[in-house]
Amino acid sequence: MAQQEFSVKRIGPIAIVAVVVILLVVFWSRMTVTINSGEAGVLFKTLTNGVDTENTYGEGFHFLLPWDKMIVYNVRQQEIAEEMNVLSSNGLEIKADVSAWYRPNYSKLGFLHQQIGNAYLRVVVIPALRSSARSVIGRYTPEQIYSTKRDAIQVEIFEETKAILDDKFVELDNVLIRSIILPPTIKSAIESKLKQEQESLEYEFKLQKAQKEAERQRIDAEGKAAANKILNASLTDKILQEKGISATVKLAESPNSKVVIIGNSKDGMPLILGDIK
Length: 277
Description:
The protein has 277 residues and is of the alpha+beta class. The chain has helices spanning 2-31, 109-115, 120-137, 142-148, 150-166, 184-234, 237-253; strands at 32-35, 39-45, 50-51, 60-63, 69-74, 78-87, 93-104, 170-181, 259-261, 271-273. It contains seven helices and ten strands. The N and C termini lie far apart (157 Å).
């Protein structure tokens, strides 16, 4: 009898350990979760408060109660590209290819899961991008969209989309206009107009260049005329006679053959005859 009681006492703890081991094996997959690189988790507490909005669970190995659940999100930057038909300010249909770089707000991941869910791309990102693109492009003419305002349109779409997604716990990193396709007739008309404007600008440049050259020549001529006027005013008869005498002296000292007649009938300046080398 005593031996039976001793056997029962020994079997009891062993049975408990065995049950625990069996339960661990059965529920191990529900009690542990591994969050991979570029991911984050939201914990749903079944028996208490539901979604844990206070904590975001990062990469690595985590234990949880068997009745709780970890929902894993991709928190890397992602891209969505949308092709859409939009209307310009004058009612012409334009095809736009717009892409957005987005990711869930890491610190607000619990609120994102609670209020929107893991289908947030379809529920909020795409509608926000489409709505903003249509709104912004609709403020411009096809000519502005095609030529001068593309960068401004891209910035405006980004700002309007971001304002929507910030309230939905999604971070927007950038918006890119990948292509704008206009109706062929409108595109041809715009290109022809741009070509004419370019030719007009080239003509204006050449005209301005010619005008500047003419002005330069006028100023140069006026300068030379003013210099000649000053020179003529300074050349009196006495100065000319003095320069003539000086030149006569130098000629007289030259070994070259010549004939010098001192004093002509008009101004007394020397007359030089013969070869002067």
